[in-house]
Amino acid sequence: MQAETRTGALALPLAELARGDIARVGGKNASLGEMIGRLAQAGIRVPGGFATTAEAYWRFLDHNQLTERIGAKLGELAEDAHNLATVGRAVREMILAAGLPPELEAAIKRGYREMGRRAVAVRSSATAEDLPEASFAGQLETFLNVRGDAALLEACKRCYASLFTDRAIVYRRNHGFEHMKVALSIGVQRMVRADKAGAGVMFSIDTETGFPRTVLIEAAWGLGETVVQGMVEPDAYHVFKPLLDRPQLKPIVGRQLGAKARKRVGRKLVDTRKKEREAFVLTDDEVLQLARWACAIEAHYGQPMDMEWAKDGDTGELFVVQARPETVQSRVAAGRLRTYRLQKTGRRLVTGLAIGLSIAAGKVCRLSGPQEIDRFEDGAVLVTGNTDPDWVPIMKKASAIVTDHGGRTSHAAIVSRELGLTAVVGTGNASKVLENGMEVTVSCAEGDEGHVYEGRAEFEVEEVDVGEIPRTRTQVMLNQAEPSSAFRWWRLPADGVGLARMEFIVGNLIRIHPMALVRFDRLEDRKARREIERLTRGYADKTEYFVDTLARGLARIAAAHHPRPVIVRTSDFKTNEYARLIGGAAFEPKEENPMLGWRGASRYYSDGYREGFALECRALARARETLGLDNIVVMIPFCRTPEEGDRVLAEMARHGLERGRNGLQVFVMCEIPSNVVLAEKFAERFDGFSIGSNDLTQLVLGVDRDSALLAALFDERSEAVKETIAALLAKAKKSGTKTGLCGQAPSTHPEFAEFLVAHGIDSISVTPDSFLAVKRAVARAESA
Known about the structure:
Blueprint lengths: L2 E2 L4 E5 L8 H17 L10 E4 L1 H10 L3 H8 L9 H14 L4 H13 L5 E7 L15 E5 L2 H14 L3 H10 L8 E7 L7 E6 L10 E8 L3 H4 L6 E6 L11 E5 L5 E4 L2 E4 L2 H4 L6 H18 L3 E7 L6 E8 L10 E9 L3 E8 L3 E8 L14 E4 L7 H4 L4 E4 L7 H9 L2 E4 L4 H4 L5 E5 L5 E6 L3 E8 L9 E6 L16 E5 H9 L3 H5 L7 H10 L6 H20 L4 E4 L5 H5 L21 H4 L5 H17 L5 E5 L5 H13 L11 E5 L2 H5 L1 H7 L2 E4 L1 H9 L17 H17 L2 E4 L3 H4 L3 H7 L4 E4 L4 H13 L1
Parallel strand pairs: 17-18, 18-19, 19-20, 24-25, 24-31, 25-26, 26-27, 27-28, 28-29, 29-30, 30-31
Antiparallel strand pairs: 1-2, 2-3, 3-6, 4-5, 4-6, 7-8, 7-13, 8-9, 9-10, 11-12, 13-14, 15-23, 16-20, 16-22, 17-21, 21-22
Helix pairs in contact: 3-4, 4-6, 14-17, 17-20, 27-28
């Protein structure tokens, strides 16, 4: 179908459009046409339809003699925009009162008839839209599930009117676009029945850190508007892109169940059912299909992309309904790294999702709606339920933003990134807890979770040119424990991870004692049973909750550094720490000295924990073989004798972790004097030593590392400790066994690294915030 006038087409099939047609049909419609015409062979489904052209828009204005009238009205805008609402409303009323030119009305009806007069989505697409320097995302209107000629024509006029919403006027003004030089195209697409299934967004880059090797997908039940506008906390998935071309793998390295309390069905916002809240919207296969599409779209456009998707509840098919360039992380200079470090904080008040990696402070200003803009002071911390594009004028004045609702791709999150603001979204209760006028600090520098602290905290900011970090022969690796912060450090030129602490994931994410899951039916603690039931909802087998959460957490850390090695230490809780896990008290003895008690290797083959260790092994095997992160190296802690090492290795092999199979390396911690004395025998059984300087110091000096009374005696730099380490390094070199150190000493005392380099250590693993200092110390030692 095509309607012609003297100057060009008024409506064109989407299939005839390409990305070079932005001037004719705007960025959104040009991109839809590009995907329909050029990505169908990749299996990507995009709903078909037609688009009105910029020519049609100018014809509409001419037909109703609106050009001069709108221009004159916009000319009345005051410099401070205090009359914005009045001017914007007047312009919109002019458009809604006007009639469509007969030839345009006929073209729209003809296109609709050729689509079978079925339910359609009517989308606005501006001709200056989705340019690299500006994204019009969320500025214009979309109307879903439109049926019938009359409703469609009315929706088209409302699209034209949306070019002059208050937020769109402000957006053009801020980005230097002349109001009367931007035209609007209307896209009319087949309606994907997401109201009967689900929808959401996806990015081909990590939205918080710019990590380029992951796809982020968010999903909620019903129409996707709830995700885009931050009305719900959606499910979230991270997929590791480099392994997507291996069909036998399922590299979903992050999967988080969202609350999804409401869903949009037609024009109604309704509560979701309990069953929906406790279920993931997408299957693993659907997540992987969307991730592959995201990679194909990114490759086609040659840049990171921001996409919307929908699932049809009638057919079960997935569709991409929009794709535009990602305009924030893709423009961050890859060569510079800015880090924020909290030093001293007040009481933690609320927690949500961290947007960005920065820290900001200010006075709370709690608003219920954008109409309260006059109450907002420049530099305040905006606190509200959730935002939409009408909030942008206020957000631009804020030092930070905190919302009750929303996910990583909500409006508040997207705009905060574009404006470079610190934001914490989806707190659930910020607008109740944070009082007007309170001094607070908003921190997004602690991983995926963002926190709001009472008062103005002390923090440091450092900016480094990554290109100036020296190269070294000795590997400098990172100590990491928190999967949520793994992507944060991808720009550091680290040689991998020398210590990934499994117990952090167990203690902070899983929170349940593994034996309480294995023997849940015998657990008598009613309170623990209720909490376990809550945490494991959605898992028919409660042990699967442990395995799945641990496997994905470890895989995410490994993905951030792939293919460089990531050394994962199996659980090293003491009995008193295990007992604090949910349900743990029933499975742990009370020991006089847990530090020297039932910990590390001694647990793994014992009847009291063997089944729990089996879950750890299953998680490691899944992370390596199902998710595909075979750069994971396993490390055994507190292994007292070579014979104990044999028993642990046999236990691992029983559960699919056989040393040497599929390239699996197994290291042992060197933290007990016996590890040094019998180093040759340990080297026969393990691929490498990792020196744990904290425990080794404690056992060489006979000093309880947790004793405040003996703190002055605890020093990794003591001559006895250094002689012990030097002896281990010499024996390991003789046997050709790899060596590393993952204790705290180099992080606290960078000069300690010089001693290690002098004795030929292969790698040093440090905390991320001390990486630069240690790297420089190693470089100095190597050049000495």
